[in-house]
C-alpha cells in the first residue's frame, strides 16, 4: 500500500502529493465519462462547500458516481460568488440562507454546529433530508446517529421522496473510526468495556490547522519561533491533549463524544467507555489504540478473521515485519485499517483484546460516511 498524504492548499482546499491525483476544484478528468448527472436523481445541496470536508464531499460524490439531477454549492457570504468547476460543469457558490433549500432533496452539511443549528431545521422544513457532519444533533432523541456499516437500521424508513424532511447525524470522526473496527467484534462477543486512546491529526481541526502545522514545521526547522493561531501551543514536533474544551469531570468534549456516541450507536447504555484524546503532528488521518473487554471469550485468531470479513475494514497485521496501520497508509483511502490484534494479557480466559486502528478523518471520518448515508436514502 503506497504511503500518501494530503497537505493544505493556501486557500483552504486540499491537494495530494504524488502518487495521488490532485483533487483540485475540477474533480474529474475531462476524459472521464460523467455518469452522476441524472434527471431521475435527487437534488443536492452541499453546505460549507469551500471547507476541507465540503471539498471532500464533492470528491466522494464524484468518486462514487452518486446520481443527482442538480447540485447547489452553498457557503458563507464571504465565499459567495466564487466560481467552481465540478464534473465538467461550472457553478457559482451561493450564500447560505433559509431559502437555499427550495427543491432540495438531500443537504450535506459541514459548516459547524452553529450553522447546522440555524439552517438545518430550515432545510428540513423545506422537505430536505439533512445529513449533518457537526455535533449539533448527534445526541438529540429521535435523530439517527449513523455509521452505515454499523447501524443502518437507525435510519429505517427515511428515504428521498417520502414527502417530508428529516435530520440524520454523522458521528464524530473518532467514533466512526473506532466503531468500524470494534463493532464486528462487539457483535460476536459483546463489549462490556472499551478504553480508547486517540492520536488525532491536524485534519480534524480543518484546513487552517493543517496549514498551521505545515508552516510551523518549516519555521521550527529554520530555527524560527512558530506562529500559533489555531492552537494555543506549538504543534510541530509536539503533541498535546485534544484542544476541545475540558469539562468539570476532567474529560474534554472530544472524549465524551466517544463515550456518548458509542452508547447511542450500539443502543447500549450499559457499555463502559473511557477515552483519552491527543492531538499529534500528523497532517491527515487519525490513529486509535483500543482495548476491549468482552462478555464472551474471543481469541485473537477469530478476531482477525472477523475483521478481515468486516465491510469497510482492511487488516494490516504483519508481526514478522513489524508492519501495522499508519496514518500515511490510510490517507485518502476509504477503508479503516486495523492491526496489532492481540490478546490482552491483563485479562484471563480470552476476554480481552488490544487493537490499533487508523482511518482517514476527512473521508470515512466525515465526507464518505455522510455520502454513504445519502446513498441509503435513494
UniProtKB/TrEMBL annotation:
SMART domains found in the cross-reference section: Semialdhyde_dh
A biological process from GO: isoleucine biosynthetic process
InterPro entries reported for this sequence: Asp_semialdehyde_DH, Asp_semialdehyde_DH_beta, NAD(P)-bd_dom_sf, Semialdehyde_DH_NAD-bd, Semialdhyde_DH_dimer_dom
Name recorded for this polypeptide: aspartate-semialdehyde dehydrogenase
Active site (record annotation): 173, 286
Pfam families in UniProt: Semialdhyde_dh, Semialdhyde_dhC
Keyword NADP annotated: yes
Catalytic function, reaction form: L-aspartate 4-semialdehyde + phosphate + NADP(+) = 4-phospho-L-aspartate + NADPH + H(+)
Assembly mode: Homodimer.
GO molecular function, one term: protein dimerization activity
Superkingdom of origin: Eukaryota
Amino acid at each position: 500500500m503506497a504511503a500518501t498524504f494530503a497537505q493544505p492548499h493556501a486557500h483552504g482546499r486540499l491537494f495530494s502529493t504524488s502518487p495521488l491525483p490532485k483533487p483540485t476544484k475540477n474533480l474529474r478528468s475531462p476524459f472521464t465519462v460523467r455518469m452522476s448527472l441524472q434527471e431521475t436523481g435527487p437534488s443536492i445541496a452541499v453546505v460549507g462547500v469551500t471547507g476541507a470536508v465540503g471539498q471532500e464531499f464533492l470528491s466522494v460524490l464524484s468518486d462514487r458516481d452518486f446520481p443527482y439531477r442538480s447540485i447547489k454549492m452553498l457557503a458563507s457570504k464571504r465565499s459567495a460568488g466564487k466560481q467552481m468547476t465540478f464534473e465538467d460543469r461550472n457553478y457559482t457558490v451561493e450564500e447560505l440562507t433559509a431559502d437555499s433549500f427550495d427543491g432540495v432533496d438531500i443537504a450535506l452539511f459541514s459548516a459547524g454546529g452553529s450553522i447546522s443549528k440555524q439552517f438545518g431545521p430550515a432545510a428540513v422544513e423545506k422537505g430536505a433530508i439533512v445529513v449533518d457532519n457537526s455535533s449539533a444533533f448527534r445526541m438529540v432523541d429521535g435523530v439517527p446517529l449513523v455509521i452505515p456499516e454499523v447501524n443502518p437500521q437507525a435510519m429505517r424508513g427515511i428515504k428521498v421522496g417520502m414527502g417530508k424532511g428529516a435530520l440524520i447525524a454523522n458521528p464524530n470522526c473518532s467514533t466512526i473510526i473506532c466503531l468500524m473496527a470494534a463493532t464486528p467484534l462487539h457483535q460476536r462477543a459483546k463489549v462490556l468495556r472499551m478504553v480508547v486512546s486517540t492520536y488525532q491529526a491536524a485534519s480534524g481541526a480543518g484546513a487552517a490547522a493543517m496549514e498551521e502545522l505545515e508552516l510551523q514545521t518549516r519555521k521550527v526547522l529554520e530555527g524560527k519561533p512558530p506562529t500559533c493561531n489555531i492552537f494555543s501551543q506549538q504543534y510541530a514536533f509536539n503533541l498535546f491533549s485534544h484542544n476541545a474544551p475540558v469539562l468539570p469531570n476532567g474529560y474534554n468534549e472530544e472524549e465524551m463524544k466517544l463515550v456518548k456516541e458509542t452508547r447511542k450507536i450500539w443502543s447500549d447504555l450499559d457499555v463502559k467507555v473511557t477515552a483519552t484524546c491527543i492531538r499529534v503532528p500528523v497532517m491527515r488521518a487519525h490513529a486509535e489504540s483500543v482495548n476491549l473487554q468482552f462478555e464472551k471469550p474471543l481469541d485473537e485468531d477469530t478476531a482477525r478473521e472477523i475483521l478481515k470479513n468486516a465491510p469497510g475494514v482492511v487488516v494490516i497485521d504483519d508481526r514478522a515485519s513489524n508492519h501495522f496501520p499508519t496514518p500515511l497508509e490510510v490517507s485518502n483511502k476509504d477503508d479503516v485499517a486495523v492491526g496489532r490484534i492481540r490478546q490482552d494479557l491483563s485479562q484471563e480466559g480470552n476476554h480481552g483484546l488490544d487493537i490499533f486502528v487508523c482511518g482517514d478523518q476527512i473521508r470515512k471520518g466525515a465526507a464518505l460516511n455522510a455520502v454513504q448515508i445519502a446513498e441509503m436514502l435513494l
